[in-house]
Amino acid sequence: MWLIVLLHLAVMLAQTAVFPNVRSPDERQHVDLVLQVRQGDAWPWPGPGTTYVTQGVTAGGFVDADSLDGPQHLADRDDVPPRGERPSYRAAGGGAALTAQGPDGHEAPVFNQLVQHPPLYYLLGAGVVGLVPGWQDAPLDQVWLLLRWWNALLALPLPLLLFATARRLRLPEPLPVAAALAPLAVPELTHLESAVNNDNLLVILGACATLLVTRVLTGDLTRRTALLLGLVSSLALLTKGFALMFPAWILLAYLVAAWRYRGRVRSAATSLLVVAVVTVPGIAWWVRNVVVHGMLQPHGTHATPPDLTPVHGWSDGGLTWLGRFAERMVTLFFVQDHAAARAHDASWWAARVALVLVVAGIAAALARRPVPRLDALVLLFPVPALAGIVARGSWEQFAAFGDLGAAQQGRYLYTGLVGLLVVALAGAAVLRPRWRRAVPTALLVLAGGMHLAYQYDVWRLYWWPAHGPGALGSALAAVGHWYPFPAAVLGAVAAAGTALAVAVAVSVARTAAAPPPDDAARRRAADADPVPAA
């Protein structure tokens, strides 16, 4: 287990080098808002449509933050200053508003739409930046990397939470170990965990909530668990709006537990009340939005709510919208389309393979019931709930503006990731013991294949030179040059990751090859007594 946890960390740290700054979803805006909170420009929390992206944050990136128009050939670039001499936040303009050319041809400030979210993630990030002496005058790419490392540390417990959830559900060995390996088979997840994004805090809080909900479903109706569940829910509600599905999810879990343990209805009701009371601070933020802004979640770039009166209907392209929504939610759950090309490349097909395996596992779990079906449905609840929230917002944008692709990001489902993966792996409990022992090995092979397909597309898009021999060497040299810290740091991460991958592979291979304890005991008994008792 600890090898898996360290391998997960090594993969995240390696991806901080593979993906240039600003090339993760909204990363420039997330870093900008963290820095504005740090210097007091965005605290107290500003209202929507009042906060601009600052010029200073442009010092941290050397590629375009928007959709790319094709391969970047970063290995051919010679305009990136040497390490340690790159511009600082103050030198690039500090808190002055960043401007861009609008549709009318005039320069206009670029709004930071992320003020629509609650402030918890940005307050924590500002605390991390505050640990860097003189951060405003330090090369911003170094500060940026430290923020990425902090996000990786936020995600560090995820394999442990998956393992603990599977163990609580009494999945047979070695499926809990396979559950811990599962995040490695979702390359976009490890990419997001290595970037600056408030999703990372919400994902780990969602994982904690999933473990606590599992405890409730399996009979833990204590007030201590309820207190923890309420605390986690409140923190999630202070992180992002997707946590608004938590109250319904928790209520559903306690209703199932009260029905199952009918003699403990009073304990279930008392614990549910504790959860409700402790969740009040998180709920209060959203009540404040309704009172102050007149809506549950304000629009980030408009001081007053925009007109969302439907103009387009189903006959105006609804089926096209639905097809694109389904395709984007699947693709961008497993991998990332950094050029927004929607190409059916290697990683696109790898996402389809992973989807088939997940769906097959869930179907087997619901049909054969290795865990109670109600428990499985409760654990799966966040995924359709989150998909419904995303679909509603995306359809609203389509109906008002005809935008076919608004808000269609598979990463929005990661808050329900633990329940989804554990239930899918529960389907493997129906396999014969010898096949079941091979599940961690098969999952590690799948993770390797997913990352190979993913990294092939990423390196081809970003780092590969346009022409000339020695393309791989040129690309590796460019990654080392762009890295904010000495190349020895990156080399140590790569070496540790390789060693950990080998160690995990050897460990799971031994698990697959070893006979189960009951088979070994039966064989020893047969050797001692050639005529076994009836």
Q: Would you kindly provide a written description of the structure presented here, covering whatever features stand out?
A:
- This protein is 59% helix and 1% strand.
- By secondary structure, it is an all-alpha fold.
- It has one domain (2-513).
- Strands 1-2 form a two-stranded antiparallel ribbon.
- Helix 6 packs antiparallel against helix 16 (417-426) and helix 18 (439-462) packs antiparallel against helix 20 (487-513).
- The longest helix has 29 residues, at 265-293.
- The chain starts with a helix and ends in a 6-residue tail after the last helix.
**Whole-number mean pLDDT:** 92
**Sequence stretches where pLDDT stays below 50 over 5 or more residues:** 519-523, 525-534
Total of domains: 1
Total helix count? 21
Distance between the termini: 40 Å
Write down how many β-strands occur, each being a DSSP E stretch of 2 or more residues. Answer: 2
| Largest sheet, spatial ordering of strands | 1-2
> Helix and strand string, N-terminal first?
HHEEHHHHHHHHHHHHHHHHHHH
- Basic shape: globular
Strand content: under 5%
Q: What Rg do the Cα atoms give?
A: 25 Å
Helix content class = 55-70%
**Structural class, please?**
mainly alpha
Largest sheet: 2 strands, antiparallel
Any chance you could write out the topology, listing elements then pairs?
Elements: H1 2-18, H2 27-38, E1 99-101, E2 107-109, H3 120-129, H4 140-155, H5 158-168, H6 175-181, H7 187-193, H8 199-217, H9 223-237, H10 246-260, H11 265-293, H12 318-334, H13 346-368, H14 373-380, H15 382-401, H16 417-426, H17 433-436, H18 439-462, H19 471-482, H20 487-513, H21 517-528
Antiparallel strand pairs: 1-2
